[in-house]
Each structure stands twice: as structure tokens, then as C-alpha cells.
Amino acid sequence: MTTITSAASSCTDPWSSSGFVEDQELDSGDLDGHMPTMKLEPDDDVKMPDIRIREGPVREAPSTINQTPLVAKRPRGRPRKYPKLSPESMAKVGKGRSKTGCITCRKRKKKCDERKPGCMNCEKNAIDCEGYREKTIWKSGKERAEEARLRSVSLPNIKLPAMINGVETAGDMMFFEHYIFRLSSIFTVEGEQNNAFKCMLLPMAVQHPGLMHSILALSSKHIDYRSSYGIKFLKDHPEVDIETLERRSLFHQHEALNELNADIERQKKGDKPNVTLPATFGQMLCLVLETLSDPNPKGLHRVHLEAYQSLVKECPPEDGEFQKFIHEFFQYHICADELIALPADRVRLSATCDDWNLPTTIVQPDAVRLLGVSDGLFLYMSKITNIRNEVRENLQNGIDPPVGYNALYAAALIDAGIREWKPVWPAGDSRDRAGLLYKQMMWVYLWRTIHPPRCSSWEPNAKITEAVNDGIKILSSFDPRDPSQTLILAPAFVLGCAAFEPAQREPIRKAIGVVKAYMEYRNSDTALEVLEEVWRLMDAKDERSWDWQTIAHGMGMDFLAT
């Protein structure tokens, strides 16, 4: 007989109550008050009929006081392959949600794969991913309070003052750059080292705000934003547009005039005698040059030239290099004004006595910035203008002949002086060729003055035809980027007024076009418009073609041909 007993199973034993199939069939009430019984397992070597149960005394149930709880009865049957889950294990475990998804997925309440820069979830659904919020660092309450305190502290509004008077914005810097690297080089035939527009005007403008405003206004009016240069200039400065530049241009013009008027009033009252006088002349110079940009010139340049003549008599500047520069500049433009100006109802700016001759002093080449003033050539232009005004008056009054013997004698003296005149620059210099061109211009101007056309004879004279052809040859010899181009417009205009042959006109048109490309001023276009009208009258054999000053004023064009 074999007695088989079974040990009590532990809670971790696969024979636990939760792991049997028969668990659901047992009634827990049937176990109350019973001791756990042993299970007899079959044995292959034991015969079941021979097995007997040993009988013993019945034990009393032990007291449950101060004793460990009884082990639960081992259920019957085989264990479950997949144990039944307890209610505790079936409860869903809460998992914290991250807030690092993209803005779009968070709005749509969709799971985000958090791919950068845009999540694949948005891409697969053809949705524009709005990206991710900026990561914030957690800070304690004390740190946040300190940041709030710092934000509440008001800092002073610090603004750095302008380093150079008037140059305050990006547009001002563009005007300043244009003046230094482009504009200041086209007004004179001097070299880069002796350029008075840089070496004299700029240092003075740093100390005088009115002159700086005048320089910036001059520079702003010179730029043509429709030209190739202007388009490239704007591309190089994309942060500024044309509207902003035009506003700054008007601002500088307004401030320059205010400063100029204030300085003139102080000069008259004697508050600051001669302290700001050089800067005042510099501002007048800029105002004269500004008129070259006017598409509809009405003679405003003459107002500034007259103001200069009045101021220089009342407050003559001190002798020096700047005084020589200012005198030469204004006298050049005063004499060149005679090519277009009419003497009616006004006093001539460059009226010259017929007995005034050339100065005897020898002029050094380095002392000449513009042709005609220091070397005395424009003296002949003023004398020729005297004869021209007399002939015009005789034509208007019907006096025949219009050119009297006094005018012919004066013309003979002028012709002799022109033949003797020589440029001050050495032979081969482009400025020497410019001097020869001006000499040719003077002779053509004299011949055209004392030979007004008549209806009875319209055949071009061989002398004037040859003189114009020689002048055209000199015109075509200049390089398009030669600094002497700043002197070419006046002789080209005078030669054009004597170009009776149609073949002579195209080279003159081309020469004026080259001047326009170099100077980029609109007075070149105005001069060509007047010439086209003169040529039209020539072809019609109209006597009015002689008086191009009256033609220009009849067209409403009173400009400087410089």
C-alpha cells in the first residue's frame, strides 16, 4: 500500500486558483469548515484495489488565533495555457502625453512622428505642417519673478548720433557714395588727386551741415533710376526703394535751402562775418549744378548766378585756393550762359567792355580746372555776344545792313585774338585737344554771328563748312570715358548751330549722345532738341535759324549748355 500525499501549492505555483479551468465551477462556500484533503494520484506500479486509507484520530481544528492564514485549496485540473488576468492587471495604465508634436497634428489631435522640419503624418495627408513650437526651459517661480522684474525695468532709448552731418539713413549713404565715386569726377578735368569737389568741398561739408545737405541733394538729383547705372545701383542696395530715395532727396533740398537762407541773413547782419562764407558759395555751386538735371529748364540757374555776383560784391571771400576754384567755376558758367541767354529785360551777367584784353600773366596748367576762364578764351565769347546782341537788334528794327562797320572791325580784332590763343596744356594731352576744340568753337561762333542768312543766298559758305568739319574731327577723337567730356557739350552745340550740311549733323548727334552717357545730365537732351529745331529751320531756309537763343526761349527751354 502506498500512501500518496500532496503538498500545499504556493501562490506562485502554476496550480494556483487563477490558473485552472475548473476555477469557475467551484463554490467557495463548500470549503467552509473543512480541512484541506489529500489527493490520491494514480501510480502505474500500484494496483488501485490494494490501496487503503489509513484511519487515524480526528484532529481538532486548530485555533485561528495567533496563527497564519490557511493556504487556499489547490484546484483541480490542468493549468491554463493563458492564465486568466486579474482585475488589477486588466486596469489600463495611464501614460503621460508628450507635447512635442507639430502644431498641425496637435490641432488635429493626431499622433505625430515628430520628424523635423516637417512631420511625415502631415506630408502623407497632404497637409501643410506648421512646424514646432519653440522649446521652453522650465524655470522656477523665483526665476520667473526675476525675469518679470527685469522686463518691468524701463531701459533708456539709446540712439547713436550720425557720424557725418546729414548722412543718417541708408539712402543718405547711397547719395554720399554716388558723390564720392562718380559725381565729383565729372565736373572737372583735374586729376583724382587735385579734384576740388572732393579735396575742398567735402572737408568743408563735414563741418557745415548746410553744405552737406546741398551735396547730398545734388547727388540725389543726378541719379537716373531708369538708366542702366541707376538700375544696377538699386540692385546693389536692395534695402532701399525709389520712393524712399525721393523722399530723402526732397528732405535734403529743403534743409539745404533753409541753411543757406539762414547763413545769408547772418552775413547781412554781421553776426558771423566770413565764418560760413566759403560754405555759402559751395551751396550756391551745388544749386547751379542741380539745374542741369531739370527736364524742363526755365532759367533757374541764372538766379543762382546772379545771387553769387551780388554776394561776392558784398562779402568778397579771402584769397586762397578755394576762392580761385569758386571764381573759375562761376565765371565759366556765367560765360557759357551767353550761348542761350537773351538780353531782353535783364542785365547781362558777363557784360564785357570791348577794350578789355587778355591778361598778360602766364597761366600754369595745374591752375586751370575749366577751359576759358583762367586762360582768357571766354573773354572773346563775351565780346562776340556783344556783337550778336547788336546784330539781333538791327534785324528786329529792320536796319540794313544789320552788321555795321564797328561790328566788323571788332570782329576782325576778335579773329586775330582767337588765332593767337593757345591752350595751356602740353601737346598730346586730351585737355589740349579740348582747348583746340574751344578755339574752333569761338571762330564758328564769330563767323555765324556776323553772317546772318538772307533769303537771297542760302548756299553754305565753304569757310564755315570746312570749320565745322574740322571741329567734328576733333569731337570724334575723344574717348567716351575721357574726363574732357565734361567740356564737350558747349562746342558741340555751337558747331551744330552752323551745320548747314545734313551730313554734318549725325556726328554731332553722336557726340552729344556720348556726353549724355558720360555726364548723365538731362541738359544734353535739351540741347539736342534745340538743335533739331534749328536744323529744321535751316532746311526750310528760314532766317530765324540764325537766332538760336530766341528759338530756345520760344520752345520754353532756358538751360546751361555745359
From TrEMBL:
GO terms for molecular function: DNA-binding transcription factor activity, RNA polymerase II-specific; transcription cis-regulatory region binding; zinc ion binding. Residues 1-44, 73-93 are annotated as: Disordered. The keyword Zinc does not apply. One of its GO terms (cellular component) is nucleus. Its main location: nucleus. Residues 73-83 have a biased composition (Basic residues). Pfam families: Fungal_trans_2, Zn_clus. Residues 101-129 form the Zn(2)-C6 fungal-type domain. It is found in: Nucleus. It comes from the Eukaryota. Residues 1-19 have a biased composition (Polar residues). This is Zn(2)-C6 fungal-type domain-containing protein. The lineage of its organism: Eukaryota, Fungi, Dikarya, Ascomycota, Pezizomycotina.
